[in-house]
TrEMBL record:
This is Uncharacterized protein. Residues 137-202 are annotated as: Disordered. It holds the Pfam family DUF6852. InterPro entries: BVU_3817-like_C_sf, BVU_3817_N_sf, DUF5606, DUF6852. Residues 191-202 have a biased composition (Basic residues). Residues 137-161, 174-187 have a biased composition (Basic and acidic residues). Residues 3-49 form the DUF5606 domain. It comes from the Bacteria. Residues 52-122 form the DUF6852 domain.
């Protein structure tokens, strides 16, 4: 559900879900327990909520209704404390608390009361429409130079971990010498034993 699927009709209270267009107008469904449907003809003024703005005194001149609804939700949550019996001062304080720059000459107290009523209807039926959507953080890709530098670094680390050829050669030579020494010792022992036996025989 999106705000562009919700409409208000001049002269009719509440909000309506836009179902589909017809030859004579558009089929609307009341957003209330009755879910009453009717065709809003060309003679009825239908306002889609995402196309409505509230007048302001800043350079922009207005603020989208969707943004105002998000501000109300951020400050008041589920309950605005505004009712049909709220005074004009309460209505004015309510809107100025979330939109201090609203145009007090163009926005009437009846408009603020209608805004609070719309908010209550959406809160009860489509609360997800009142929460501002978070924008996904853009993914940052490594620059070509940085990627090349990381690749070179990885190759250097790999080379550093591998034993140097000279070290390998020295290690092999040492193993060979130890092996030859081990082979020579038994032969020397055998010769010494033979010499001793010969001396005894003499």
């Amino acid at each position: 559900m999106e705000l562009r699927e919700v409409a208000a009709v001049s002269g009719r209270g509440g909000l309506f879900k836009i179902l589909k267009p017809t030859k004579n107008g558009v089929i609307l469904e009341a957003i209330d327990p009755s879910k009453k449907r009717f065709v809003a003809g060309a003679n009825e003024r239908v306002s889609i909520l995402n196309e409505i703005s509230i007048y302001t005194t800043d350079k922009d001149g207005s603020v989208p209704l969707e943004s105002v609804l998000h501000k109300i939700h951020a400050k008041y949550g589920a309950d605005t404390k505004i009712t049909g019996k709220s005074s004009n001062d309460e209505l004015g304080n309510f809107l100025s608390s979330i939109l201090p720059e609203y145009d007090r000459e163009k926005v009437y107290h009846s408009d603020i009361k209608k805004l609070a009523n719309w908010y209550a209807i959406l809160q009860a039926n489509f609360p997800e429409l009142l929460v501002a959507k978070k924008e996904a953080a853009p993914k940052t890709e490594a620059k070509p130079a940085e990627a090349k530098e990381e690749k070179v670094k990885a190759v250097k680390e790999e080379k550093a971990e591998a034993p140097a050829p000279a070290a390998k050669k020295a290690a092999a030579k040492k193993v060979k010498e130890v092996s030859e020494e081990a082979t020579e010792k038994p032969a020397a022992k055998k010769a010494a034993a033979k010499k001793t036996a010969k001396a005894k025989g003499e």
